[in-house]
Automatic annotation (TrEMBL):
The chain crosses the membrane at residues 25-43, 55-74, 86-110, 122-141, 153-181, 201-220, 232-253, 265-286. Pfam families: SBF_like. The keyword Signal does not apply. One of its GO terms (cellular component) is cellular bud neck. It comes from Babjeviella inositovora NRRL Y-12698. The keyword Membrane applies. Residues 388-428 are annotated as: Disordered. Keywords: Membrane, Transmembrane, Transmembrane helix. This is Uncharacterized protein. The lineage of its organism: Eukaryota, Fungi, Dikarya, Ascomycota, Saccharomycotina. Residues 410-428 have a biased composition (Polar residues). One of its GO terms (biological process) is negative regulation of cytosolic calcium ion concentration.
Length: 428
C-alpha cells in the first residue's frame, strides 16, 4: 500500500509568518512607528509629550554608544583614533564631495524650471548634503556588516565635531547666486549651534563611550557575557528606530509633508535612494583606488629607490582593507537627521515658513538610508568574510607546502602584500 502524504500542519503558515516577522522586525517596526508618528505627532516630536529632545536625542543615542564602548577594546580605540587617512577620506567625502555633487544636480534641476519640483525642497537637499555623517545609524550598521566598528565610532565623533563648523559655512557658500533667496545669514545663531553640538556630542557620544570602556576594563568577563547573552546589538537597532520615530513625529507635527507638492515628495523619495547607493559605491572606489595598486605593485625592498619607499609609505595605506572600507562606505554616504534638524532650525529659525520644505529631504534621507543600508549590509558582511576565507585558504596552502617539504615563497606566506617583494593584485 503506497505511503500516504503527511498531513499539512495547520500551524505551518502562522509559523512561517512569525519567522518572516522575526527576520524583518526592523522594517515592520519602522512602518508601525511611522504610522504612529503620523497619527500622534505630538507625542514623540521635539518638545512634545515624550520630550524626545532629551529622552531620545540624548538617551537613545547614549545607549547605542554605551553598548559600543562596552564592545570595543581600548587598544583598538586608540589605534583607530590615529587612523588619520580614514578620517581625511571620510571628511572629504562627507562634506566636500557629496555636497558638491548634490549642489550641481540641484542647480541643474532648478535651471530646468520644473514647476512640479519645489525650489525650497531643492534647498533642503543642498542643506542635507552639507550635514555631517549620522550618529547612531553608522555604528549599528557597521556592527551588522562586521566592519570596523571602532573606526566608525571615531568617524562619528570627528565628523559631527567638524560638522558644527563646516556645515554652516558650506550652506553660506552654496546659497549664493541663484540660491541667494535661501541664504539664512544667521551668524548670531552660530555660537548657540556650537554649544548645542558640543553638549550633544559630549553627553550622548563621548561620556557613554568612556563609561563603556571603564566598565569593560573593570569587569571584562561580565561585560563580554552581557554583550553576547543579552543581544545588546538588537537593543542598538531598537534605539535607532526610536530616533527615526522622533524625526518623523517632528516632521509630521510641522506639516512638512503637506506643505509641498506630491510630485516633489515622490521625486525626493526616489532621488534619495539612488543618490545614497551612488555615494556608497563612490565611497568604495574612493577607499580602494586601483591606481594605487598599479603605482605601488610591490612593497619596497633594499633595492627600491628612496622616492618609491617614501611614496609607498605615505600613499599605499590609502587602499584600505575590507573592514575599514565598510566603515568608510557607511560613514561617507550617510547624513544625520538628529543633528541635522538642529543645524537647519538654528540657521533658518524654528518658525521659518519654509522649515517644513527644508526638513522633508533630511527626514526622508534618514529613513531611506536606514532601509537601504539594511539591505546593503548583508552583501558587505559576505564581502568582508570572503577575504577572511581567502586568507584562511592561503594559510592552509602554505602549511601544506611546508609539511611536504616544499620551499615557501614570501608572497605565499603573507597576505595583502605587506612584506618586501610581495606582489599586490587588486581584490574583488
Amino acid at each position: 500500500m503506497p505511503d500516504e502524504p503527511e498531513p499539512v500542519s495547520l500551524w505551518r503558515y502562522p509559523r512561517n509568518f512569525l519567522k518572516f516577522c522575526q527576520a524583518q522586525w526592523f522594517f515592520i517596526g519602522l512602518a508601525v512607528l511611522i504610522a504612529l508618528a503620523h497619527s500622534y505627532p505630538n507625542f514623540a516630536r521635539l518638545g512634545g509629550l515624550l520630550k524626545s529632545q532629551y529622552t531620545i536625542s540624548y538617551g537613545a543615542v547614549a545607549i547605542i554608544f554605551l553598548i559600543s564602548g562596552m564592545s570595543s577594546s581600548t587598544r583598538d580605540l586608540m589605534k583607530n583614533i590615529g587612523h588619520w587617512r580614514a578620517h581625511l577620506t571620510v571628511a572629504t567625502m562627507s562634506f566636500i564631495i557629496t555636497s558638491a555633487i548634490i549642489y550641481g544636480i540641484c542647480t541643474g534641476i532648478a535651471r530646468a524650471q520644473n514647476k512640479g519640483i519645489d525650489e525650497w525642497m531643492l534647498v533642503g537637499l543642498i542643506v542635507t548634503a552639507t550635514c555631517p555623517t549620522t550618529v547612531a545609524l553608522n555604528v549599528v550598521m557597521t556592527q551588522q556588516a562586521h566592519g570596523n566598528v571602532v573606526l566608525t565610532l571615531c568617524e562619528v565623533f570627528i565628523g559631527n565635531l567638524l560638522g558644527a563648523f563646516i556645515s554652516p559655512a558650506l550652506v553660506q557658500m552654496y546659497t549664493l547666486g541663484m540660491w541667494a533667496f535661501a541664504n539664512p545669514a544667521a551668524d548670531s545663531s552660530v555660537g548657540d549651534l556650537y554649544r548645542q553640538v558640543m553638549k550633544q556630542l559630549g553627553l550622548s557620544v563621548f561620556v557613554p563611550i568612556f563609561v563603556g570602556q571603564v566598565v569593560q576594563n573593570v569587569f571584562p568577563r561580565q561585560t563580554k557575557w552581557c554583550v553576547s547573552t543579552l543581544k545588546l546589538n538588537k537593543v542598538g537597532s531598537f534605539m535607532l528606530l526610536l530616533i527615526m520615530y522622533a524625526s518623523f513625529s517632528t516632521a509630521f507635527y510641522q506639516n512638512a509633508f503637506t506643505s509641498v507638492p506630491t510630485a516633489s515628495i515622490i521625486f525626493i523619495v526616489f532621488f534619495n535612494i539612488g543618490i545614497y547607493v551612488f555615494f556608497t559605491i563612490l565611497c568604495y572606489f574612493y577607499s580602494r583606488p586601483l591606481f594605487l595598486l598599479w603605482l605601488f605593485p610591490t612593497a619596497p625592498t633594499s633595492d627600491s629607490s628612496k622616492t618609491y619607499s617614501v611614496c609607498y609609505k605615505i600613499f599605499r595605506p590609502f587602499y584600505y582593507n575590507r573592514k575599514d572600507t565598510v566603515s568608510v562606505m557607511l560613514c561617507g554616504a550617510a547624513k544625520t537627521a538628529a543633528l541635522g534638524v538642529s543645524l537647519v532650525t538654528s540657521q533658518y529659525g524654528s518658525h521659518n515658513e519654509h522649515l517644513g520644505q527644508l526638513l522633508v529631504p533630511l527626514v526622508l534621507y534618514q529613513s531611506e538610508q536606514v532601509m537601504t543600508a539594511q539591505v546593503l549590509t548583508h552583501f558587505m558582511k559576505k564581502w568582508v568574510h570572503a577575504e577572511e576565507a581567502k586568507t584562511s585558504d592561503e594559510e592552509t596552502a602554505v602549511e601544506a607546502k611546508a609539511s611536504d617539504g616544499e620551499t615557501v615563497d614570501a608572497s605565499d606566506s603573507v597576505s595583502n602584500g605587506v612584506r618586501p617583494g610581495t606582489n599586490l593584485t587588486p581584490e574583488s
